[in-house]
């Protein structure tokens, strides 16, 4: 099969398009013909540079979230059949994980595309229980974006923040993959949503496309002042903040109401931020970090996508697999407005590197 192989950590040029052996599925695995896989800041770009906390053994095939069609099954793989269209959940639970509590796995869990080979390839062998069947009406690109982000958004707001109908939610980075999903999950749960982004057109998209009630440009407006004005001085009961920008964090925290909850699952802008502990304890606020989800959150997201009550995050571009280096450059330069995906099907006839 053709794949992007990482043989040394480095720049985008380290991503080599090669011909390698097609994997055979283990007894509990499914072999997927990959149609799309996304390019992410932390799990792809930082991994490629050797800066991610978990370094894979080299050579390595990246790609944490492939979607595609099952072409082979291991003898004990359950719940799937040949021809199923599936999306893949990244986290591989440990032997001590309690079923239904996958997000709270205390064991040494694995990750698709990090601790094992992933979806930057024509085929990927994936643990069967991490493969979730997609509805026929959901295209592969949209399915990739939804399975990647919607379950985490639901888990953050429903299970971690305990969001209640009628509460105010401030979503930072509201047109990004996770942010746009948080807007939609919050609206589906009956919340009033303020979408925050760094450009007027992105704020407008969060309102018109994803259904936010209000918007604010946190680059040229006083975020906390606008939030307090919109909420009549109450503040946001829940803030979703997965940007991790030191300049934006104080405004997000100052927007938080008494007894407010801030949930976070990312730090694309660096993650080193200041914290006013006095505000935290005097207002009895909570900061909750949770980068994963439970399997039932994935089922919820797929059902919501199937009945049309949520939509996929914005997809900026879909590049052939052999242009993975260019996809990484787009992400690093922050030129993409939305998700960047790779398509191995488009690269089936492309020449490999020698």
Summary keywords:
about 350 residues, alpha/beta, Rossmann fold, globular
The H/E string reads EEEHEEEEEEHEHEHEHEHEHEHEHE
Q: What is the number of helical segments per DSSP (H or I, 4+ residues)?
A: 9
Structural class: alpha/beta
Q: What composes the largest sheet?
A: 7 strands, mixed
Which band does the percent of strand residues land in? Answer: 15-25%
Please, what is the CATH homologous superfamily of the largest domain? Medium-chain alcohol dehydrogenases, catalytic domain
Mean pLDDT: 95
Q: What is the molecular shape?
A: globular
> Briefly, what CATH class of the largest domain?
Alpha Beta
How far apart lie the N and C ends? 15 Å
Under CATH, the topology of the largest domain is which? Quinone Oxidoreductase, Chain A, domain 1
Q: What's the count of strands?
A: 17
- Taken together, the total number of domains comes to 2
Helix percent band: 25-40%
